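Good day; I would like, with your permission, to put a structural problem before you. The record follows directly beneath this note:
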Amino acid sequence: MIKNSILSVLLWFFATHVFAFKEINDLAARVGAYDIPIKICIPDNAKGRLPVMFFVHGGGWNGGDDKVVPDAQIPADCDYLCDQLGIIYVGLAYRCKGNKGTFHLALQDLEASISWFGERADEFNADMSRIGFSGGSAGTTLSAVLAQRYYNCKVYVGREGMYNVLDLDSTLSNFPNTSSRADFGLVSNEQKLEASPYHHVRKKPAATLLLHGKDDWLCHYSQSVKYAEQIKKAGGKCKVVLYEGINHTCLNIAYPEVFENSMMEIARLYAKGYELKKVDFKAIEKRLDERTESFYPYETIQENMLLGSWRSKKYGTFTFKENGQGDFVNRTGKQTVTITYKNNGSKLMVKVDGEKNERTFYLRKNDHTIYELITENNRWKSRRNDYRKL
């Protein structure tokens, strides 16, 4: 039974992870004791000079140590759009807090990597007159600064971003907080100004797409709204896509509807901004549908699907027994309470003894996960709790 389960998972993985591109990992620079890695993804079958998308990873500028900087990363859309659209994706790395890096030093690392790639444009068949930048979370701040510095930048995609550190309202955004700014060299107004692309928008900036969850407690969605206003004032085009009930993620396949919509928004931006011809959007949509199908919840939940124990390392374990009965054990294992449950179509309604309100769960198709969406009026408590089958 275990072997069959493993085989099923492997077959699903290879069926849904078809990477139609070549990945190259190299070193773009050497700064002090640190090598700066770079990751390049080149479409297999594309012809002619290809546009380039530079991606800057997030992570709160955390990571790294006295020997190694955090790895270069590529965004989720690379799996779908690199080959479909014929775009070279380049993941950029930089010194972070663990490397005693600063925002200013990080920009130097990123620019050195871009120069390294540009010097080898012929080798990679890259069209450096059509480049773009993208970043997620803390990576948006760095990537958005670069997008304003490079006049050959045609497109920009920001995901749950932070664009104005100088005028940061800490009652809305929890990142970067005081300690994070201090650790990454953002203390003086001059330093914070450098890390605020909001104040450095060039004339006729790149076509821009900003994705943001309206329940984002790290980087408030007003960061995207206000940055878009600046871009438009400077003569650029910018679209802001806001998602209700979504916290700090817009490209997590665990939220399939949001994931698919974000992917298609990115595809349309690239097609127009890079001036791509004959883009088969239906093929992209089909590929997305096939990949995300198993991440949607069941439309109908049967009791036999639930029987057994479901655990969250953070919260505890639910055990569902026959006839709508069960129990919940907290994560320490020291407190057990009884529960009752009932199915309501796609919803699993759970009443925990001692709690006033019923809790609503959904059962995801692919990996035996039940999840609870918490969307309280207080956005600081909005979250998603996953419980996996034991």
